[in-house]
Design brief:
heterotrimer; A alpha/beta; B mainly alpha; C mainly alpha; A: alpha/beta; six-stranded mixed beta sheet; four-stranded antiparallel beta sheet; 34% helix; B: mainly alpha
Chain lengths: 263, 290, 286
């Protein structure tokens, strides 16, 4: 297990002058951030300001978008994420990601876990089972699905599917978890459940979460990063501890946004 | 603990992926090359025979005199007549099914029915045409028999394409028209049909171009292969391009094979023109929308 | 919002067109059954596979053994699908996930072209190119193998187009989430995306099977048409469709009725395939 206890509070990931272009348009420019280890960092800001693009550049998912170009620097521990010889498969094992819409694979719950685990070298049946169970317990899904691990994952409810996706990522024991509005497609009750389990993971993983829900950001985050978009693309206006940003932000834009006057 | 990917494993995997990509690329290019060979082969054989004489001569037992004129004219007759029969009926059926029919058991039955109809082997349409139109109704081996048979064949395709085009018309258009007090029929005639027209036309042309290439049903309803006159009306006997090609192809002499190739060039040219028209319509309607 | 009352005449015309079309299938089946009644009553459908030979025109002792034709049809169809399905799947996967945008459009264009080429063209090409090549390996050239290859080539475009469409309809998030779990590209494709599309792949193969089953002219040109159960790929075979095309023109009475009975058999096979497709698609909707 990656324990967070030892070397806190140094940064788990850093970005330096990170800029991302789709074709000729910039999604965001010059983002330099430190993402502290074992804390929850929330990215807030209006739609279209580059939060999601920023998130998917961290695990180089942007490689899959042909017109997308990322410049600057990202580090994960000692690893230069953007270096061409970086093994992205191994990188993505270390950085898990959950998307807006739950997307379990169209086969059984058990196989949803077995496939990525096998891909990363876990071959023994017993170990796969044990990891699956542990991950499902972490998200509070074990008791709900223990009797139907052979059933299709698509038969679960939306909230259960999202927790399954979370568990699927946890089973790989990532260091960092990226969450892209994980609750926006869920009803309030399922959403609260996902949120509870995120909070219970606090201290074990480094979490970066994009959210439009300011109240949610305030409830769960340790630090908040505020993105804003103008004509030249998105940028980071301000970042800091959650209370500082919500109570006495320095930038007038931030003050207005957290008070609900913009966006 | 074994989570992680060892490097040797990774290189092997990369190599496998690259090998796979290349074999796929080779396969795909093989398909393209195959088509190129097919067309090149036909052209090489046929172009030497393809001249004005070939287009304007009648069938002959001597390959150097033989031409495709009656077959070309026959195909044009056949397709126009097929269109006259199948298009109104097919579009009307599509309108009924999309705009009037209520979702019900009957409707599900209709869906299954259409799918089945599209899967019926063309030769079965042929024997149906032979027994009903040629013999039963006494229409003989005429263009009309052929066209009626072909109409049955393309009807399901036309209905399905038209339904899709009608379904693509936004419901807001209908509601706006109803709100102005138009009846359902007026709404369909003045709003739904005009906006669905490009889609319907494209579907119709593609269905008809399929009919042009169909040979088996025509062999059944007895399109003649040795025709030395042009048809004057729908009750005349006739021949058609694919029949003529098939006839030449099944003769043993090499010259006739080349004639068949020349015939194929003419057939493909007709198809290309029709598809070109379809593409043009699609393109124009898309521009009209934006 | 409900529309005002309507013109009854227009509605009547539209409705009769729809119902008329629908009766076509009923008409076809009823008609083919009706025409086969003669042989069904006097001989029974089972004689299609119990009789040793096919001499339906004989005055004294007609026999209706269609086994060679049935076997020929099934082998040619199954062979074509076995050859074309993996090729089509590979082609669709390549076009979707490995090809550049330009290449993709080029390949799609070519495949649509291939799909529009009439079967008689494939037949002639098979006869003039494929058959001589096969004859070099083992005579006479016109054979089951030639039929399988020509049919495979004919159904390949349909298979590629349908599978390509199915793969394109997969939600983008599926591939993204698989990539985010650190799956390699080939694993994402073969373990996640292709399995998720298996119903559409099934539908594509059934449709292609129906097409191969019903094909007449190309098979007629390249298969040799001998009424003999094939013992090797190089044997000449006659399919049910080819048999109808060859004999219907001069068939009388019981002979004619026997041909209709073989048509009925074809309709039954197609019906089974369509039922399979319905089953696949119904389960998608729920």
């Amino acid at each position: 297990m990656n324990s967070c206890a030892d070397d806190c509070p140094c940064a788990a990931m850093t970005t330096e002058k990170l800029t991302l272009h789709y074709g000729a348009t910039a999604a965001f420019r010059d983002v330099s951030l430190e993402i502290p280890r074992c804390e929850i960092t929330a990215l807030i800001g209006p739609s279209g300001c580059g939060k999601t693009s920023f998130l998917s550049s961290l695990n180089r998912l942007t490689d899959l978008v042909p017109s997308c170009r990322v410049t600057g620097r990202i580090t994960l521990g000692d690893l230069e994420v953007l270096a061409p010889d970086t093994n992205v498969v191994a990188l993505r094992r270390r950085i898990g990601m959950i998307f807006q819409k739950p997307n379990p694979f169209a086969f059984s719950i058990a196989k949803n876990f077995a496939l990525p685990l096998r891909e990363h070298g876990v071959r023994e049946h017993a170990e796969i089972e044990q990891r699956t169970e542990a991950a499902l317990r972490d998200v509070g899904l074990w008791d709900e699905v223990r009797d139907r691990l052979r059933r299709s994952a698509r038969t679960l409810s939306g909230g259960q599917q999202q927790r399954l996706c979370l568990a699927r990522a946890l089973a790989l024991e990532p260091e960092v978890l990226l969450l892209d509005e994980p609750c926006s497609a869920l009803d309030p009750i399922s959403s609260a459940k996902v949120e509870d389990h995120l909070q219970s993971l606090k201290g074990r993983f480094t979490v970066v979460i994009v959210t439009h829900n300011l109240a949610q950001a305030r409830r769960i985050a340790d630090r908040v990063v505020f993105f804003w978009a103008d004509e030249s693309g998105g940028r980071v206006v301000e970042s800091g501890p959650v209370d500082a940003l919500f109570e006495d932000a320095i930038d007038p834009l931030t003050q207005a946004y957290v008070r609900g006057q913009h966006g | 603990m074994s989570l992680g990917t060892s490097d040797s494993n990774l290189t092997a995997r990369r190599r496998k992926a690259a090998a796979f990509r290349w074999s796929c690329a080779a396969l795909t290019s093989a398909t393209i090359v195959l088509l190129a060979i097919l067309i090149f082969h036909v052209c090489k054989q046929g172009l030497a025979w393809l001249d004005w004489d070939f287009l304007t001569s009648f069938q002959s037992s001597r390959p150097e005199n033989a031409g495709i004129k009656p077959a070309l004219v026959g195909t044009l007759w056949l397709i126009s007549l097929t269109a006259c029969i199948a298009v109104p009926v097919g579009v009307a059926a599509a309108i009924y099914l999309e705009e009037y029919a209520r979702p019900s058991r009957l409707n599900t039955l209709i869906e299954v029915n259409l799918a089945n109809l599209a899967g019926v082997p063309s030769i079965v349409y042929g024997i149906l045409g032979l027994a009903i139109f040629v013999r039963g109704l006494g229409l003989d081996r005429s263009i009309l028999s052929g066209a009626l048979t072909m109409a049955l064949l393309v009807l399901p395709v036309i209905i399905m394409a038209s339904r899709e085009a009608i379904r693509a018309v936004p419901p807001s258009l209908r509601q706006a028209s109803f709100a102005l007090g138009a009846t359902q029929w007026e709404t369909i005639r003045h709003h739904v049909l005009p906006s669905a027209l490009p889609g319907i036309l494209t579907g119709v042309i593609l269905a008809l171009s399929r009919a042009i290439g169909e040979t088996a049903p025509l062999v059944m309803v007895g399109a003649a292969t040795y025709v030395t006159f042009l048809p004057d009306g729908p009750m005349d006997s006739f021949t058609a391009l694919p029949i003529q090609i098939f006839n030449w192809a099944s003769r043993p002499q090499a010259e006739f094979e080349k004639l068949a190739a020349a015939g194929i060039i003419v057939l493909l040219a007709v198809l290309l023109v029709m598809n070109g028209v379809a593409v043009f319509i699609r393109h124009r309607s898309r521009k009209g929308v934006s | 919002m409900t529309p005002r009352s309507d013109r009854p005449v227009a509605l009547f015309v539209l409705r009769s067109c729809a119902l008329g079309t629908i009766t076509i299938l009923v008409l076809i089946v009823a008609f083919v059954v009706g025409e086969s009644v003669d042989v069904l009553r006097n001989a029974g459908l089972s004689r299609l596979w119990t009789d040793p030979t096919w001499h339906p025109a004989s005055k004294t002792n007609p026999t209706f053994g269609a086994v060679p034709m049935i076997v020929g049809t099934l082998f040619a169809t199954a062979g074509a699908v076995v050859v074309a399905l993996p090729l089509g799947l590979l082609c669709a996967v390549f076009v979707n996930y490995h090809a550049t945008h330009t290449l993709r459009r080029l390949v799609n264009g070519v495949i649509e072209l291939l799909a529009g080429i009439p079967s008689v063209v494939y037949g002639l090409w098979g006869l003039t190119t494929l058959v001589p090549i096969i004859a070099m390996i083992r005579g006479p050239g016109t054979s089951l193998l030639a039929g399988i290859l020509v049919l495979a080539l004919m159904i390949l475009p349909t298979i590629v187009l349908l599978i390509d469409q199915a793969l394109r309809e997969q939600p983008a998030e599926l591939a993204l989430s698989a990539a985010a779990l650190g799956l390699s590209k080939s694993r994402i494709i073969w373990s996640v995306l292709v399995p998720s599309a298996w119903r559409s792949i099934g539908t594509a193969s059934l449709l292609a099977t129906a097409r191969a089953l019903g094909e007449t002219m190309a098979v007629l040109l390249v298969c040799g048409n001998a009424i003999k159960t094939p013992t090797s790929l190089f044997d000449s075979v006659r399919t049910l469709t080819a048999n109808i095309a060859l004999e219907m023109a001069y068939a009388m009475d019981t002979h004619r009725s026997a041909l209709f009975a073989s048509g009925l058999l074809l309709l039954g096979l197609v019906g089974l395939l369509i039922a399979g497709i319905e089953l696949l698609e119904r389960r998608v909707r729920t």
